[in-house]
């Protein structure tokens, strides 16, 4: 099952709808309640980032992939870059990085895509890299830190 929603500003993307869409999909997939709230917050921050700092419009898709939940936010302006993931300046992407199991950025002819992955079962705690040069999604990868 995949759910999609188009983000647009001005005219206002309905971020409440984005949160409801992600929450419904996450709950339906069996994600633990505390993980649902983390994913909803991360998706909201990522969508807000695209609307405020990207091209002002994009698309969000939520799907299951290999037993994980994946939220992909496409920035039609293509302004999101791999180096934004490494920035720890209080931005929404810092929050996203620290809530999700994996975050990656890819750029293509359609713009930039920010991919958030959250395992249905919490991954074991331990040190994780904050960013690497190239990930399976074709861009930079940041993994959440766990305590």
TrEMBL record:
Gene Ontology MF annotations: ATP binding
Presence of the UniProt keyword Transferase in the record: yes
Keywords of this entry: ATP-binding, Kinase, Nucleotide-binding, Serine/threonine-protein kinase, Transferase
Coiled coil: none
Residue span(s) of domain Histidine kinase/HSP90-like ATPase: 15-117
Residues making up the signal peptide according to the UniProt record: none
Region annotation Disordered: where it falls in the sequence: 125-147
Pfam families for this protein: HATPase_c_2 (PF13581)
Protein name (record): ATP-binding protein
Organism of derivation: Actinomadura luzonensis
């Amino acid at each position: 099952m995949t759910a999609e929603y188009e983000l647009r500003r001005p005219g206002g993307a309905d971020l409440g709808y984005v949160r409801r869409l992600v929450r419904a999909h996450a709950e339906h997939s069996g994600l633990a309640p505390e993980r649902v709230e983390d994913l909803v917050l991360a998706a909201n921050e990522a969508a807000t980032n695209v609307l405020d700092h990207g091209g002002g419009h994009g698309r969000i898709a939520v799907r299951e992939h290999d037993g994980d939940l994946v939220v992909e936010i496409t920035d039609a302006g293509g302004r999101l870059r791999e180096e934004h993931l490494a920035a720890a300046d209080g931005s929404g992407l810092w929050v996203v990085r620290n809530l999700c199991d994996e975050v990656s950025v890819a750029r293509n002819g359609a713009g930039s895509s920010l991919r958030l992955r959250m395992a249905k079962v919490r991954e074991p705690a331990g040190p994780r890299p904050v960013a690497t040069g190239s990930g399976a999604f074709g861009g930079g990868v940041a993994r959440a830190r766990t305590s």
